[in-house]
C-alpha cells in the first residue's frame, strides 16, 4: 500500500515546482498547496523542466465548516499505478569519512582513492540488513540501484544481498570473498532482486580521489552479479582532477536520475548512493511543505541511514497500466446510480 510504513525509517513530504513528479512520505498525509498550471516542455523527447497541472482529490479548504480540523492539512489522492516506492540509502562509514572528519584536506589524498568501508561501516551494514529483513523490505524491493563505487556497492550487497555465499551454490555471488579488501565472506545473490550500477547517482564528481571510480572490468571481478551494462565507459571519464562538480550541477543530475526512474518497470526500488547526491537532490523539493517536514526530508543522511518515500507521477511520464484496477460491468448490465436524478448531481 502506498501509505504503509516501515519501522525505523524517516518520513517527509517532497514536492517540486520544476518537475513532473512528487515524492510523498509513507505515513504522513500530504500538506500541499494546489499547483498552478505551467506549460509543458515543447520537446517531447526530453523530460519537462516544468510541472504539469496537479489533478487530485482534496479535503475541504479552510472555508469549510470543519473548524475542529487543521485547515492547513489536505488529503491528496493519486492512482496507485502512477507511484513508485523508493528506499533511499546512504553508504555506510568509509575510510574517507574517518580521515576527512579529522582533516578535510585528507579528501585530496590519493590514498583514499575509491575508499572502501571501515570495519565499523560493515557493522552498520549488518544492522541495516537486519532492519530490512525485520521490516520486510527485502521481500518487496524489486530492484537495487547503486552508485558504482566500492563503498556504495559494498553497502548495497551487504544490506540487500542474500547472506553468506557457500561453495556449491548455483548462483553468482554479489561480492567475492574479501571483495574490496573487506575481510568479509562472499555475498550470495540467492533470492535477491537485480542489482544495477548507475552513474547518475554518484557523489560530487572531481578533485576528491575518494569519488573516482575504478575500471568497470575490475568491479566486475569483485561484484560478479551486479549489472554494469548501463555504464558507457570502462574508465572514469566523468571525474576531473581539477574541477569539482558544482552543487547546482549535482542537483540537476539528481533530477535527471529521478526522471529516469520512470523508465523502469519496477514499482519498489532501493537506491544506495551518497550524502551529497541525496542532500542536493532532495533539497530541490519541499518548498511548499511545512518547514518541519521540509527539514525532516532535506537534512543530511547519516552513514547507512535509510528513508522510504513514495514518488508520484503527475505528468504522465510513466506508461504502466494498473495491475489491480478492475473495469466492472462483467457481465454488462444496468447500473444507473440511485442519485442520478437528484439536483446538482453528477452521475
Summarize the structure.
This protein is of the alpha/beta class and 347 residues long.
Word description of this protein:
- With 347 residues, the protein is α/β, with parallel strands linked by helices.
- 22% of the residues lie in helices and 10% in strands.
- The chain has 8 helices and 7 strands.
- It has helices at residues 95-102, 119-135, 137-140, 150-160, 216-222, 247-260, 275-282, 291-298; strands at residues 21-25, 83-90, 143-146, 195-197, 226-227, 268-273, 306-313.
- The chain has a 7-stranded mixed sheet.
- Strand 4 (195-197), helix 5 (216-222) and strand 5 (226-227) form a beta-alpha-beta unit.
- Helix 2 (119-135) packs parallel to helix 4 and helix 6 (247-260) crosses helix 7 (275-282).
- The longest helix has 17 residues, at 119-135.
- The radius of gyration is 23 Å and the shape is globular.
- Residues 1-19 and 28-71 have low confidence and may be disordered.
Amino acid at each position: 500500500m502506498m501509505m504503509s510504513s516501515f519501522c525505523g525509517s524517516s518520513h517527509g513530504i517532497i514536492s517540486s515546482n520544476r518537475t513532473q513528479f512528487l515524492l510523498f512520505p509513507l505515513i504522513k498525509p500530504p500538506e500541499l498547496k494546489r499547483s498552478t498550471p505551467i506549460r509543458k516542455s515543447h520537446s517531447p523527447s526530453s523530460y519537462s523542466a516544468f510541472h504539469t497541472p496537479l489533478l487530485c482529490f482534496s479535503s475541504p479548504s479552510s472555508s469549510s465548516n470543519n473548524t475542529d480540523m487543521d485547515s492547513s492539512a489536505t488529503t491528496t489522492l493519486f492512482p496507485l499505478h502512477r507511484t513508485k516506492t523508493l528506499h533511499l540509502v546512504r553508504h555506510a562509514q568509509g575510510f574517507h569519512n574517518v580521515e576527512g572528519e579529522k582533516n578535510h584536506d585528507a579528501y585530496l589524498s590519493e590514498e583514499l582513492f575509491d575508499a572502501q568501508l571501515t570495519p565499523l561501516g560493515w557493522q552498520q551494514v549488518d544492522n541495516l540488513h537486519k532492519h530490512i529483513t525485520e521490516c520486510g523490505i527485502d521481500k518487496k524491493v524489486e530492484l537495487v540501484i547503486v552508485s558504482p563505487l566500492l563503498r556504495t556497492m559494498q553497502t548495497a550487497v551487504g544490506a540487500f544481498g542474500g547472506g553468506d555465499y557457500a561453495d556449491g551454490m548455483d548462483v553468482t555471488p554479489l561480492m567475492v570473498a574479501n571483495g574490496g579488501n573487506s575481510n568479509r565472506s562472499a555475498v550470495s545473490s540467492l533470492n535477491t532482486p537485480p542489482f544495477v550500477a548507475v552513474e547518475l547517482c554518484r557523489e560530487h564528481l572531481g578533485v576528491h580521489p575518494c569519488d573516482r571510480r575504478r575500471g568497470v572490468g575490475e568491479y566486475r571481478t569483485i561484484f560478479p552479479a551486479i549489472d554494469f551494462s548501463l555504464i558507457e565507459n570502462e574508465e572514469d571519464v566523468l571525474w576531473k582532477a581539477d574541477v569539482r562538480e558544482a552543487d547546482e550541477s549535482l542537483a540537476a543530475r539528481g533530477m535527471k536520475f529521478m526522471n529516469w526512474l520512470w523508465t523502469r518497470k519496477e514499482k519498489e526500488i532501493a537506491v544506495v548512493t551518497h550524502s551529497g547526491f541525496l542532500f542536493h537532490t532532495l533539497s530541490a523539493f519541499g518548498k511548499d511543505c511545512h518547514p518541519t517536514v521540509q527539514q525532516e526530508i532535506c537534512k543530511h543522511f547519516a552513514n547507512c541511514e535509510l528513508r522510504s518515500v513514495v514518488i508520484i507521477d503527475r505528468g504522465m511520464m510513466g506508461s504502466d497500466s494498473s495491475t489491480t484496477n478492475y473495469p466492472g460491468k462483467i457481465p454488462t448490465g444496468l447500473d444507473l446510480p440511485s442519485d442520478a436524478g437528484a439536483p446538482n448531481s453528477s452521475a
